[in-house]
Amino acid sequence: MLAALAKFTHRFRFLILLAGLAFVLAGVMYGTKVFDHLSQGGFDDTRSDSYRASRIITQRLGQTDASLLVLLSSGDAKVTDPTYQSAVTVALSQVAADPAVRQVTTYYTSGEQSLVSTDQKSTYAVISLAGTEQEQQKAVERLRPQFRSDELQIQLGGPAAVNEEIQHQVESDLAKIETVSFPILALLLLVVFRGFVAASLPLLLGGFSILGAFVITRLLTGVMEVSQYAINIITVLGLGLAVDYSLFMVSRFREELRERLGKVEEALRKTMQTAGRTVVFSGLTVVVSLLSLLVFPLNFLQSMGVGGAAAVVVAMVGTLTVLPALLALLGNRINALSFGRIRRTYRAIQAGAATRPAGGMAWSAISRFSMRWPLLVIVLTLVPLIIAGLPFLRANFGLPDVRALPVNSEAREVSKTLERNFGRESGPIQVVLPAPSRAMEQANIAAAREYASRLRTQPGVKRVAARYQQYYSQIAVNPGTLKLKERYASGPYILLNVYYDGDSQSKQTQDLVKRIRQVLAPERFEAEVGGETAALVDLLAALREYIPHALAIIVGTLFILLMIMLRSLLIPLKAIVMNILALSAAFGAQVWIFQDGRFTDLLGFTPVGSIDATQPILIFAIAFGLSMDYAAFLLSRIKEEYDRTSDNTQAVAAGVQKTGGIITSAALLLLVVIGSFAMSSIPIMRQIGIGLGLAIAIDAVIVRLFLVPATMRLLGRANWWPGGRKQPPGSDDNRPPKPSARGD
Question: DSSP alpha helices (H): ranges in 2-130?
Fold first, then answer.
């Protein structure tokens, strides 16, 4: 099939390139508008108790959400001064008339002393915005310029402002990836290919893949929510895999041109049958890994999975269609504008005398060392990997909050000010009690009070406040709440807010949620526990429930694909085990850096004592697929050599020699792209970037160059059971590897 595809792309290369150009134009005109259709959040398990509780609180109890917090500060005047009140009224008057604003609550309209700072010089307004999170974010972007005052300093915070700042930061990070990564990639590609024409192809394919993935993602937003964080994953995978795949294809094409004395169609056919086949298997493994995220009931992971898979599919299809068409069009001119040894080889081809450069001696020497001392190499590599992974056993997991923004963020500064100067408490644990009849009946109130008294006895609980009491206390100062009070009093729900000591995401608060859920509700009542901490507890429970399913899909499918590709049982099993070891080391480093707070000044983040609960799963899915990318490329070349020579030791040495430089170069190029994540101002993106970078570096260097040769040397002919060729009579696969004058 790939041979037929090579013939087709060679024959219709101009038509394919025109179709590719049309796809790029669609990406520019349509795909780039995907930024206007991305969603926020996506970390809630919609089947959980906490989600049901939040829906009851907002939809049935009429509790307005604090979408936007407006902090107003004065250097000298106090909140009680008439001039201060007048300045606040003027600052908020224009905003209050906006159709997106449902309600504006201030100290002057509610009398709530909690809205005034301890020094009496600052206050904040709570603005409830209509619409979805995405619509609220757009409203903040539109309203921000309207907050103006000559007398007061105004800062915006709250969930909607956080989402707006994250969206702008994501776009800024994307621009950083493009402006920083592309020039560095261009220079490295020149070093790898030693020629301008060949080096330009991966970058062209990278741009094609990114824009094409934007088109698919824009279409996906019409049928599902796609997280704003997915754009960075799409960009990195689209660019990184396009560079990887084109490196595999272009390097093999140039090699085949040398072997076939410049016969373009033959070289393209062989390239598609070898490197193209590897790209197909590699692309499928990465796609399967990413789509395994669909098993989780979290929109964040689902959108990362489908968005990343879209980028991989476009990169793979472009590598098998657009890139071969370009190679067919260029032909021997692929070596034009080359320098050094490649130029001399190109001239030799033109003269009709093919040469075969020795090269690869260093990689061959590494593999031969590993095979000469396999047990020593295995011990010296496995022991450090296992030790590096141990910190992950004590990982604490949390969820992104306002601390996901840079330390100098306005929304983050507002949050810090409210905690420091207003004594604002962490979000309470919210217990919803559906009563058997009208909530305000005396029997139901008495049952709720008795239940609240039992909640107060739980360790760590400071106080328990009933929501209906708060409404009654507000009626005297805010008649506007009377309608809401009547609506609440006629319903069957009672809301208890449980306030506690400590951080909302700490292990102690999570344990408190679990204890509260074990407290028996009053007879004929059924308690639903919600709030930020309960959402985290439910998220972790969902992850624990579905991780085995995702792992089974990833490991099982990749094992089958590698088994079909290599016709071996042991090699796929060994590749999976080594990938898991490499990933465990990367996860251990994540805990050591981000949870324990190492290198905070260098990386520019504030440690919060936990790592994001979703990022190990996301890193596992991406890195596992990417590591199989290198495994497929190396092992397929070893398989070619083994089928040709029936000598396991020589096949491993030759395979490492011919692919070691390419794999290392591909990993280095991919690290440049992923390294842009480490420059992100959003900690969760930085964690993903460093985690992925470490996993890929460990896999490309330690696993591929040392562990693979050593373990394959120990297993010998068993590597290829049951489908490998048998050894010729008299051969001894356990003999020490022979040196080769050619480096083969």
Answer: 2-11, 13-29, 49-55, 82-96, 107-110
Tokens representing 427?
């979000």
Q: Which overall architecture, per CATH, does domain 428-530 show?
A: 2-Layer Sandwich (3.30)
Q: Look at residues 166, 278, 286 and name the one whose alpha carbon lies nearest to residue 236.
A: 286
Tens digit of pLDDT for each residue in 102-128? 888 888 888 888 889 988 899 998 888
pLDDT at 478 over 50: no
Is there a cis peptide before residue 722, judged by omega within 30 degrees of 0?
yes
> Where does the pLDDT of residue 66 fall: very low under 50, low under 70, confident under 90, or very high at 90 and above?
low
CA distance 400 to 41: 9
The two three-digit tokens of residue 157, written as one number: 């915070």
What's the pLDDT at 484? Answer: 45
pLDDT at 481 over 50: no
In angstroms, the CA 204 to CA 189 distance is: 12
Do the two domains 2-39+165-386+553-720 and 67-157 of this chain adopt the same fold? Answer: no
Check if the beta carbon of residue 700 is closer than 8 Å to that of residue 623: no
pLDDT at 378: 92
Residue 499 pairs with which residues in a beta bridge? 463
H-state helical runs in 519-647: 532-566, 570-590, 600-603, 615-645
Query: Domain 2-39+165-386+553-720, what fold?
Result: Multidrug efflux transporter AcrB transmembrane fold (1.20.1640)
Per CATH, is 67-157 categorized as 2.60.40? no
Domains of the chain by residue range:
2-39+165-386+553-720, 67-157, 428-530
- CA angle at 132 for the pair 130 and 133, rounded to the nearest 5°: 105
- CA-atom Rg of the chain in angstroms: 31
